[in-house]
């Protein structure tokens, strides 16, 4: 049994859940006696001053010392619970054998090890908190061993993904400058690199393209579809996997299998345009960098060739709305219409309905960066225009023509 004085002193810092269990178990089963209890109290008092100093908090204020004592006990609790798998007997033995401050340092080293790992699997993603702020936050939450192990597992996986992505980038002759600059997902870099190694290294090298650029990535997609069109199959060279470190081989096999199963069928599917398949896959699964030219990438211009041929690349709302109106009516698409052509478009809409999906599909052919703005332009227009377009009481089309003349591009009467 402890003295009343000792018990009162211990209650100042035994509020960490597992430490309380371990300490109570140690006393009740005679692992530690009064002498050891007094040693723990003295070590905790000295250690709390050091912890206050570490966090830049005055050790002369009682409130700061109480906070430091709580943090120290939390560190001890975390270390004991993690080291002993939460077994009271083993924890009690450690309380008997190891200095209390050594147990506290053990918990601190655990948290510092966690801090040294990336907190996500994106390149160039620095921790926003300093090491001290990180420890302070962890200790304020009384981090359990279970939660700590989960965080450690996640962060180790993040580091492993980044290491694997970096290795693959080197294999294809790339540096990690682009992934770092663009805060790239390691999973996307891995998938892009494996696609390049298995399907496209020599093909894109011949054209001096790079798999991390849009043009290079699209070139791989294009050669895959062409090869399938000629041979009815696609060649996948996976011999490079044998050259990878053992720790990464299973991951490479699994991801390459996913590419073969999930991505290749979409790339070779002739029922959809290659541009459509490319847009879908690159944004969700692959890493790429756009080359910018007058705010529209060269590659987007290549993908949006039909759009530019139809619109001339205009940004004039009236011209664009005229093209959309034609599309919604199912009549020949033009940026400027004669009055009789406008009337035909309106009558077609009244007879056959608005072809909304056709407009949305047309917008998908536009440069990627412009799509959202174009959808908004169309949505705002058609919401206001629908009552005029579908007003059967306007038999002579006077109202709708007046409305459209203000918003679309109509040729003026000579």
Structure description:
With 414 residues, the chain is mostly helical. The protein is built from 20 helices and no strands. The radius of gyration is 34 Å and the shape is elongated. The model is unreliable at 1-16, 204-208 and 292-296 (pLDDT under 50).
Explain briefly what this protein structure is:
Helix content is 68%, strand content 0%. It folds into three domains: 4-116, no CATH class; 166-300, no CATH class; 304-407, no CATH class. Mean pLDDT is 85; it is low at 1-16, 204-208 and 292-296.
**How many domain units?**
3
**E-strand count:** 0
Radius of gyration: 34 Å
What class would the helix/strand composition place it in? mainly alpha
Count of individual helical segments? 20
Helix and strand element order: HHHHHHHHHHHHHHHHHHHH
Based on the structure, what is the oligomeric state of the protein chains? Answer: single chain
What percent of the residues sit in helical stretches (DSSP H or I)?
Answer: 55-70%
Largest beta-sheet details: none
Low-confidence stretches: 1-16, 204-208, 292-296
Q: State the end-to-end CA separation.
A: 109 Å
> What proportion of the residues form beta strands (DSSP E)?
under 5%
- Average residue-wise pLDDT: 85
Q: Which outline best applies?
A: elongated
């Amino acid at each position: 049994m402890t003295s009343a004085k000792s018990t009162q002193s211990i209650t100042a810092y035994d509020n960490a859940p597992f430490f309380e269990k371990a300490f109570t178990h140690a006393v009740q089963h005679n692992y530690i006696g009064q002498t050891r209890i007094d040693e723990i109290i003295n070590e905790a008092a000295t250690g709390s001053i050091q912890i206050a100093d570490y966090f830049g908090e005055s050790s002369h204020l009682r409130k700061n010392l109480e906070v430091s004592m709580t943090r120290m006990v939390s560190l001890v609790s975390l270390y004991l619970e993690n080291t002993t798998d939460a077994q009271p007997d083993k924890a009690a033995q450690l309380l008997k054998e190891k200095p209390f401050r050594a147990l506290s340092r053990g918990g601190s080293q655990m948290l510092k090890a966690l801090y040294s790992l990336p907190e996500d699997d994106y390149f160039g993603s620095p921790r926003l908190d300093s090491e001290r702020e990180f420890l302070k936050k962890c200790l304020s939450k009384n981090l359990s061993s279970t939660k700590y192990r989960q965080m450690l597992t996640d962060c180790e996986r993040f580091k492993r993904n980044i290491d694997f992505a970096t290795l693959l980038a080197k294999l294809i002759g790339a540096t990690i400058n682009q992934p770092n600059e663009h805060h790239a997902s390691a999973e996307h870099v891995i998938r892009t690199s494996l696609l390049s190694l298995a399907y496209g290294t020599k093909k894109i090298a011949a054209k001096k393209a790079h798999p991390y650029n849009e043009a290079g990535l699209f070139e791989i997609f294009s050669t895959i579809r062409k090869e399938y069109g000629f041979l009815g199959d696609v060649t996948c060279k996976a011999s490079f996997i044998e050259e990878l470190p053992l720790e990464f081989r299973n991951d490479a096999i699994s991801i390459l299998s996913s590419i073969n199963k999930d991505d290749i069928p979409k790339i070779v599917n002739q029922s959809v345009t290659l541009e459509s398949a490319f847009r879908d896959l690159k944004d969700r699964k692959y890493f790429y960098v756009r080359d910018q030219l007058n705010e529209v990438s060269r590659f987007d211009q290549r993908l949006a060739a039909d759009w530019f041929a139809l619109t001339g690349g205009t940004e004039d709302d009236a011209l664009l709305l005229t093209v959309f109106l034609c599309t919604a009516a199912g009549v020949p698409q033009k940026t400027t219409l004669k009055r009789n052509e406008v009337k035909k478009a309106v009558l077609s809409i009244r007879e056959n309905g608005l072809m909304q999906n056709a407009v949305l599909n047309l917008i998908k052919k536009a440069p990627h960066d412009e799509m959202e703005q174009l959808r908004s332009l169309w949505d705002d227009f058609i919401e206001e225009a629908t009552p005029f377009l579908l007003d059967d009481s306007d038999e002579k089309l006077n109202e709708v023509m007046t409305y459209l003349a203000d918003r679309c591009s109509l040729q003026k009467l000579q």
